[in-house]
Amino acid sequence: MRQSGSDGGYPLFALVPTRLHGSRRPKNLIFASLRKPDIRFRSSVDNDIEIVGGNPDDTLVYDREIPTAGLRWRDLHAWWQDTRKSSSETDPRADLYQRLLKSLPANSPGQRNLFMAYHTAPSANDPALLPEAWLHWDHKTVQDRGPQALLRSRMDFLLLLPHGQRVVLEVDGSQHYTRDCGRTPDTAKYAEMVAADRDLKLREYEVFRFGHDELKSFADAQALLGQFLPDMFRRFRVISS
């Protein structure tokens, strides 16, 4: 049993599997950034951060408590509507969808196809799919930091599921294991990728990888997710409707 939230100032507790004993509630959920965010501590004692410089809409920061049932589309839609001033003619859900889609890299059509396929007739009770979620952040570049740099700054997609379960979806193109524009195998790149996976799993994230060729078209992505998502939701006991 661990504290999973609060209601009216009173703590809420939930029974969770023992394998999740080390999981904690997210404190800083930063995602869908159009550039590397410039972060500073507002209070290092309380671990309060803020994004400074540039356009504040270039980076999204979800600043609400994650419910025991996980972060659902309804939660994300409510946050977006409350924090954005939209005209009465604007559909907040469509506006958020376009903003998230904009954050996806142009050189990864497979990633875009997965994201769009996930949104085929979505339920407000489905887990929210967060693109380009920041895992590590360092004010220095990898070149500056050298071999001590943290692997994999961002996750392609993050799902926050019931009882603190965290699932990462990664789309792997040839750049993950080759060099010279895909002409030469690169075992060092592959080693970095699997090392980063091990680090995530030790932090109690579950990682699922998709090959880019599985997602070459929107139809391919729809067919794949049509099989994968129900199995994954059952695996993590997600009730989506």
What strand line-up does the widest sheet have? 7-8-9-12
Overall spatial form: globular
List how many beta strands DSSP finds: 12
Radius of gyration: 18 Å
Strand content: 15-25%
Description:
The protein has 241 residues and is an alpha+beta fold. It has one domain (66-235). The chain has helices spanning 73-83, 92-102, 109-118, 142-145, 187-202, 218-235, and strands at residues 2-7, 10-14, 29-31, 39-43, 48-51, 60-62, 130-134, 154-160, 166-172, 178-179, 184-185, 205-211. The strands form five sheets. Strands 7-8-9-12 form a four-stranded mixed beta sheet, sandwiched between helices. Strands 1-2 form a two-stranded antiparallel ribbon. A hairpin with a 5-residue loop joins strand 8 and strand 9. Helix 3 crosses helix 6. The chain starts with a strand and ends in a 6-residue tail after the last helix. The relative contact order is 0.14.
